[in-house]
Amino acid sequence: MDSLLLYGEAEGYIQSLEKMSLRDIGSPRWFRQHEFIEKLNMQAILNASANQEEFIKDLFVSLGKIPTLIHAMILTEVWKHKVFPIMCKLQDFNPKSTFLLYMVIHHEATTINLLETIMYHKESSEAADDSVLDLVDYCHRKLTLLAGRSVSGEIPTEDRITHTQLLDTGSVQDLQRQSDMLEFEISIKALSVLCYITDHIESLSLSVLSRMLCTHNMPCVLVQLVENCPWNRGTLEKYTEGRWRPVLPEDQLKLNKHDGQVWMALLNLILKPDCQRKYHFNSFNKAQLLKLCGFLTEVVIDQLPNLLDLKQFLGQLAVTDPVAPKNDLILEQVPEIWNNIVMENGNKWKAIAKFQVTHVFNPSESELREQASRLSQTYNLDVMENLIPDKPKCGACGRMGAKRCSRCQGEWYCNRECQVKHWPKHKPACKLMTEAVQKLQEELNISS
């Protein structure tokens, strides 16, 4: 499998990561850091998917940079919710500035994706130090939003488009729609991160446990996700591996990855001894948890046998009242990242938006050329193919593809014979894609 980064390169990228201010977002210095995180994310996924040594995770742990990564993600989250809406009212953006704005919005998705990969390991949760509290708060915000949108029927029905496809649009409305789709994808990743944190709860501080169980009542949030299942669209489609996919009749009762993560997080938060001693099984919490009984069918337990323990516990909970936890006076840590960013910028949202509209997202022609060139190097197509869970299929016969169409790079074929045979059908799409790339080059003033 191709490698994107050498060990020394990755070490240099991670060592250079720094905490930035809200005003820095979109600046050349910020974009350089974004490119580093993009490459680190791709390499981390390549290593994990190939069961290779995960040196990206090891470097983040040894260099103590996981808190910096969490800060970068939350900083983008604050910007997206506080500054971006003001910017949209100040100016109608052209395709150039729209693309740069999308890259900023996409940064949060890239960062949570990288965190999902490295937080699988216990040592990563420990290395996050106090910032794991901010990460728990972040996951809570995303999952409550996900549950709320599922109840109100606001889950996106389309897949997120690619960077290249977005370049063919220039409207703020398209950008906002893509932001909503990204928010759904980010929330799904936050579920994974929360699941991994609960796996390692014994090695984390009491403050983290209290934050999940007492402050945010995460078990009840997870019950809402079991009830509404936002990654299932009836029995027809499921959101799997980053896109909506049709469900075959024989797979309709099969749990997907996200179902499993919700159940595993519930198992950890309800059955682990430390959690049982801390969680208050009052009448409300008890009523919410007992809703799970209706979902613990034989089919579900056959797929996740550990859920039998949960079913037995819920059976006992239905007829007993567990002892309430002791209200001991303890000193608890509190999350700082979100609060510090908001306190520092609380009366400056409009000023930051005006500054960024004028100076950051209105780049010169030379700055655009340089940025476009760097991005084209970041998103290496040959390496990114290894990140796609489904192997490309021949556009003519459906067998595994071996080579791409050299003109549009969008269609795959197993051999030259299939490519020639399929050309009459592929020609119109090939022409459209080629023209779109030419338009992109003209917009960004890149020479072919």
UniProtKB/TrEMBL annotation:
Transmembrane segments: none annotated. Plays a role in axonemal structure organization and motility. Involved in axonemal pre-assembly of inner and outer dynein arms (IDA and ODA, respectively) for proper axoneme building for cilia motility. May act by indirectly regulating transcription of dynein proteins. One of its GO terms (biological process) is inner dynein arm assembly. InterPro entries: UCP037948_Znf-MYND (IPR017333), ZMYND10 (IPR052298), Znf_MYND (IPR002893). It comes from Phoxinus phoxinus (Eurasian minnow). The keyword Cytoplasm applies. This is Zinc finger MYND domain-containing protein 10. Residues 394-430 form the MYND-type domain.
